[in-house]
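TA notes. Do not distribute before section.
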Amino acid sequence: MTSSNNRTSEYNVDPIFLDRWSPRAFDGSVMPKEDLLTILDAAHWAPSAFNYQPWRFVYALKGTAEFDKFLDILIEFNQGWAKNASALVFVFSDTLSRPADGSEPKSYRSHSFDAGAAWGLLSLQAIKSGYFAHAMTGFSFDRALSELGAPEGFHVNAVVAIGKPGDKEALPEGLRSREAPNDRKPLAEVAFEGRF
């Protein structure tokens, strides 16, 4: 059993897994590009089927025109808090396996699974670097694909807001009470030996 961040695991996991959560209150500070690239470097070391590495990260740092463009792709609810993030990162994945020999591309079934592994490592490196990451799907998928220049065959999975923790009082009133790490279902509800 491990306890950290007002959470307790059933087994002896590393505290970083309990310390990781998805806040919405960010302090609005500017992030050095090197910090973001460190976080993305960790993410791209994720495992993937056949080492294909289907993930792609399209990012923008606060204070740039690209950041404002990315923010505009989010739904209004997410714009209200993500505007104070230090970076926004769209996570794409290639739905096709494209052989190096130039042969016909084939469907790549685990593209989202692999991109999810990369997101997991991103979120943990963010913690190690003094930041937090909050992934979301509340955005226009069509606009993200077209306005960010996704090549044919790419899927957009999520957008991630990254920043340093801020004052929850800056959030809209309805979100303030929810600004705390949440718990998880008991392990027995999600892990089954042999079959469901």
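Switch to the second chain here.
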Amino acid sequence: MPDYPTSFDKDALLKCARGELFGPGNAQLPEPPMLMMDRITDISADGGEHGKGHVVAEFDIHPDLWFFSCHFPGNPIMPGCLGLDGLWQLTGFNLGWRGWQGRGYALGVGEVKLTGMVRPDRKMLRYYVDFTKAVQTRRLTMGVADGRVEADGEVIYQVKDMKVALSES
């Protein structure tokens, strides 16, 4: 495994978005405004509840974030799909962090529970990704993980069996 750090600031995440962190043709994060985190505070290939890897990241909430003005006018709420996308982004980032090659893409998710909302008065989201499987073979590179999103310490999203793969094509 390459010798990458176990935490990343916003500048490093933007470097990843430009394809400069893991190299051309490999895992990338989206650029803002679709980048759904401001920093990764911890990442591993052998930590987490199942010992298969984990990621913890944070996203600062500001009332002027792009989605609040359009979802919904007069009733601003962060779309739940953006929280799910943040979890997928982090799952793919972990695969690239491991040194595995290919471009990332989401394959699906087994179960999603949304039990709270992100309104403009929230301060911070914290993402937790816990791998249940990380596979790299000659034909397949894939991570399977459970995740949750907390808003100011309150669990608001939970997912089971997220799948992200890396492909060299």
